[in-house]
Amino acid sequence: MTLTATDAVLAFDREHLWHPYTSMTAPTPAHLVTAARGCELEVDGAWVVDGMASWWSAIHGYRHPALDAALTEQAGRFSHVMFGGLTHEPAVGLGRRLVEITPEPLERVFLADSGSVSVEVAMKMVLQYQRGRGRPERTRMLTVLGGYHGDTFDCMSVTDPVGGMHSMWAGLLPDQIFGPQPPSYDAGAPELATWAAGLRSLAARHAHELAGIIVEPLLQGAGGMHPYPAECLQVFREIADEHGLLLVFDEIATGFGRTGHLFVSELVTPDVLCLGKALTGGYLTLAAVITTDEVARGISASESGVVMHGPTFMGNPLACAVASASIDLLLDGDWAGRVRAIGDRLAAGLSPLRGTPGVRDVRTIGAVGVVQLDHPVDVIAATEAALAAGAWLRPFRDLVYAMPPYVTGPDELDRLLAGITAAVRAG
Fold first, then answer.
1. Whether residue 129 is found in the same domain as residue 270
2. Residue 22 is assigned to a structural domain of this protein
3. Looking at 62, 277, 283, 406, which residue is catalytic?
4. Which segments of 113-246 does DSSP mark as H helices, in order?
5. What is residue 18's predicted lDDT score, i.e. its pLDDT?
6. What are φ and ψ of residue 298, in 5° steps?
7. Domain range spanning residue 376?
8. Pairing relation of β-strands 272-275 and 246-250?
9. How many independent structural domains does the chain possess?
10. Residue 18 known to bind ligand
11. Of 36, 275, 317, 402, which residue is least crowded by CB atoms under 10 Å?
12. Is residue 341 domain-shared with residue 416, that is, in the same domain?
């Protein structure tokens, strides 16, 4: 039997390519993408709505003329140049835009090459800051259960040690301090007060060894799609200020409008802000770490005098050019109205699933819709059911969820909702 070109591609993929969190010897099926447009992907020859926005990054969808043009124009000049000792307009332009649109006093920009790397850099910055301020014994981070910050080593150390996919590395990672998970977004004042008191007490007991606090603000992402009250952000800020800690907000998933705020940091400003994913509209890998001048001065006062990190592709011109174009595209359009419309339609469309057999909870925040099951989802069955209904989803743990591109219209959202419903029933 002669293999078709598609069969040959999939066969090589199955035999030779690792996919995220997938076995090499017994891989789950991979589906072939051959084209993309707007909010759709051509998967296995059929057009389906992308409910994942390529892991939450492709906020403008695919093949957007403005982003294509920015990429092509920069490629016609130069695609990359080392950032050590050199600079270029795309990096400067992006840095200027980031300083303009993020809250004051965030003004010092480090351009990293992925979200995980940005968290690594942020944690290095926190430790170096404490050394520069004469407190080298402060080497641990305070965080909360339920969080997820990436797959590299320091990132894994502040990710939930049980539910965050990294439990096999226990004993090898830096030993951090984990407080209670923030209460759910609809929690009442007594529950919120109990949580805050517990976190304050924990911070006070460990203040002598703590360097900073790191959290995903307002929405914990890959740790469980858990939204929590905005009041918790002020608690983090007050604890940091009381004990001389730096507050790091990991907005890699929440930044650029996903929760309904351009940045959650507009509600409470951190000392260090990590951005990624949607920064380039899903075109290229790029992240940013933005700090206050006070943080920069503290780092400069440490024994090295410099941030001890320098990626080869730091400030990549292609990525910076398309990132600036993506930011302009976002801010020049009605991003808030689009996010609100998506959220409203997801909330209405998912509401009938609440209370149905196998469903524990249904929740939405911004342009995020989540159905939590009362059992681990059958990923293969749920994925196939969603595809058959016209949607691409990637469920995990006990969650079937969607974070679609902001360009997803009403008809496409209805197809996406049909896919979520099919996945829930199959999973």
1. yes
2. no
3. 277
4. 115-132, 153-157, 189-206, 231-243
5. 94
6. -65, -40
7. 31-63+334-426
8. parallel
9. 2
10. no
11. 36
12. yes
Active-site position among 148, 228, 283, 406: 148
Helices (H), 176-315: 189-206, 231-243, 293-300
Whichever domain contains 226, its CATH number is 3.40.640.10
| Residues 427, 424: Cα–Cα separation, whole Å | 5
Q: Annotated binding residue at 406?
A: no
Q: Is 115 part of any domain?
A: yes
Using left for φ > 0, alpha for ψ between -120 and 50, and beta otherwise, residue 194 falls in: alpha
Q: Do 42 and 92 belong to one domain?
A: no
Is 311 marked as binding a ligand? yes
Q: What are the 10-residue block averages of pLDDT along the chain, 427 residues in total?
A: 80 94 91 97 97 98 98 98 98 98 98 96 97 97 96 93 73 93 95 98 98 98 96 98 98 98 98 98 98 97 93 97 98 97 98 96 98 97 98 97 98 98 96
Contact of 201 with 142, CB cutoff 8 Å: no
Claim to verify: residue 306 and residue 264 sit in the same structural domain = yes
Please report, for residues 61, 77, 188, 272, 283, the alpha-carbon distance to residue 81 in angstroms, rounded to integers and kept in the order given.
28, 11, 53, 27, 19
Q: Whose CA is closest to 219, among 190, 244, 188, 249? A: 249
Q: Quick check: is 148 catalytic? A: yes
**In a domain? residue 358:** yes
| Distance, CA of 16 to CA of 8 (rounded, Å) | 12
Do 320 and 368 have their domain in common? no
Output the CA torsion 268→273→274→279 (10° steps).
80
- Hunting for tokens 């996010």 — which residue is that? 339
Domain harbouring 379, CATH code: 3.90.1150.10
| Predicted pLDDT at 165 | 63
The tokens 């590299």 sit on which residue?
152
Same domain, yes or no: 89 and 118? yes
Q: Using a cut of 0.85, tell me whether the model's pTM lies above it.
A: yes
Tokens at residue 373, please?
């099951």
Query: Cβ contacts of residue 156 below 8 Å, gap of 6+?
Result: 149, 150, 164, 166, 169, 173
Tell whether 183 and 53 lie within a shared domain.
no
User: For tokens 């993929």, what's the residue?
Assistant: 13
- Residue 217, annotated as binding a ligand: no
Distance CA 61, CA 77 (A): 26
* Catalytic-residue membership of 250: yes
Distance (Å, whole) CA 303 – CA 131 = 8
Dihedral sign, Cα of residue 84, residue 94, residue 219, residue 269? positive
Last residue of a domain, one of 332, 353, 388: 332
Residue 420 lies in a domain: yes
Catalytic-role residue among 21, 241, 293, 344: 21
Tell me which of 317, 332, 347 is where a domain ends: 332
